[in-house]
Amino acid sequence: MIVDLSDEEARAALPLKWGAVEPGVLPAWVAEMDYALAPAVAEAVAGAVRRGLAGYPPFGDAGVGAAFAGFARRHWGWSPPEDASVVVGDVIAGIRLVLETICPPGPVVVPLPCYPPFRDVVALAGREMVPIDLDPDATDAALDLERVEAAFRGGARTLLLCNPHNPLGRVPSRTELQALAELARRYDARVVADEIHGPLVLPGPHGTDGPVFTPYLDVDERAVLVTSHSKTFNTAGLHTAQVVCLDPADLARLRGVLLPQNHAYSPLGMIAARVAWSDCDDWHAALVRRLGEQRDLLAELVASHLPDARTRPLEATYLAWLDLRAYGSDDPAAAALAHGVKVAPGSDYQPGLPGHVRVNIATSPDRLEAVVTRLAKALAG
Ligand SMILES: Cc1ncc(COP(=O)(O)O)c(C=O)c1O
C-alpha cells in the first residue's frame, strides 16, 4: 500500500527535498517522505482541480475540524468538539497566530533541541524566548519541569510543546504531560502544543506494541493545539493546518482576526485534510508499519556501519537523531554531504551542539542503506 517513488518521481513530487541536492546525492534532511500520496488524497485533490477548483477557500473550516475530531476519536480515544478548529496556512503560521492573538504577554519557553522555526516564530511574534535544554543524549530526555517552573516564576506564561518530539522522536507519557498541565495551571500559563507528528507514533521494535500518544489537550483544556495532516500524508505544499482551541472566547478571537493575519490556506489543502483525516485509516496503518520497519532497519545498519554512534529509541516521527561525536567530527552533516548524502546538522536544532545529525528514514530500504553507508564512509575520513 505504501509506494516508493523512484528518484525521478521523488524529484518531481518533492522539489524542496530533492531539488536542494545535486543528482546522485541522497536527500535525507527535510521532513518529507519519498512515498506516493495516499490514493484517496491524490484522487480528491486531482478531482477538485479537474472540476476547476482554484478559487479562494470558503468561509469556515469546510468540515476539517469534524474530520480531525473523527481521527482523534478513532486513533486516540479523544473526542475534541467538531467545531473547535480554525484553519490556517501551516503549523508555524498557526503558532504565530496563537502567540499574537490569545497567549498571555511575556516570554515564551522553548525546550531545545527544537524544530528550528520554533525559535524564529517566537521572534517574529515579538516575544522573548526562554530556552530550556533537554539533554539530547539522555535515554529519556524528558522536559525538566523544575526549569519550566523557574521560567514561569521569571515571568514566562507560554510554552511551546512538541508532542511527539522532533528531532528526538520521543513520545512523552500521559503522567509527564499531566505534570506539565498542573504546572501551567498553577502559573496560569498557556501551553501551545504542536502535534503535527501525533499520527506518526510507531509500533515498537519488530512490530511489538509501541508507546501510546496522549493529545495534550486531553490533559489540559486551557492549552491550544496546532496540527496538520501534512507530515503524515506528505502534503506540506497544499498549505492547510489547523488550530484547535476549546475555549469559546479564545476561539472567537482567533476567528475574528483581520484577513491578512490568516489568509494563506488553500481550498485544495482543506480537501486533502478532510479526506486524510476521514478516509485513509488503512493507508495510515500501512505507513506507520512501514516506518517501524525502516526504523528497525536503521538500527541494524547503524549497528553494523556506525557502531560507535549513539541513538535514541525512535518512538515517533520518521526523523532519527544520531550522536556521532565518537567519530570526532564537529560537523558530520558537512562531511556527509561531501560523500553524497544530505542530512540535517544537529546544531540546527540546538545551536552550538556539535557532532549530531537528524536523518530522515522515510525512504526505500535501499536508499536508507546507502544513506548510512555513505555517512559511515564520510566519518571514516
Ligand atoms: C514539529 C514540527 N512542526 C511544524 C512543522 C512544519 O509544519 P508546517 O509546514 O505546517 O508549518 C514541522 C515540519 O517538519 C515539524 O517537525
From TrEMBL:
The UniProt keyword set, sorted, is: Lyase, Pyridoxal phosphate
The catalytic activity of this protein is classed by the Enzyme Commission as 4.4.1.13
The answer on whether this UniProt entry bears the keyword Lyase reads yes
Task: Work out whether the entry's keyword set contains Disulfide bond.
Answer: no
Query: What EC class is this?
Result: lyase
- The residue ranges of the Aminotransferase class I/classII large domain are 32-375
The record's listing under InterPro entries reads: Aminotransferase_I/II_large, Class-II_PLP-Dep_Aminotrans, PyrdxlP-dep_Trfase, PyrdxlP-dep_Trfase_major, PyrdxlP-dep_Trfase_small
- Segments spanning the bilayer are none
Q: Which GO terms describe its molecular function?
A: cysteine-S-conjugate beta-lyase activity; pyridoxal phosphate binding
CDD domains, per the entry: AAT_like
What Pfam families does the entry give?
A: Aminotran_1_2
Locate the coiled-coil region(s) and give their ranges: none
Specify the superkingdom: Bacteria
Names of required cofactors: pyridoxal 5'-phosphate
Family membership noted in the UniProt record: Belongs to the class-II pyridoxal-phosphate-dependent aminotransferase family. MalY/PatB cystathionine beta-lyase subfamily.
Identification of the protein by name: cysteine-S-conjugate beta-lyase
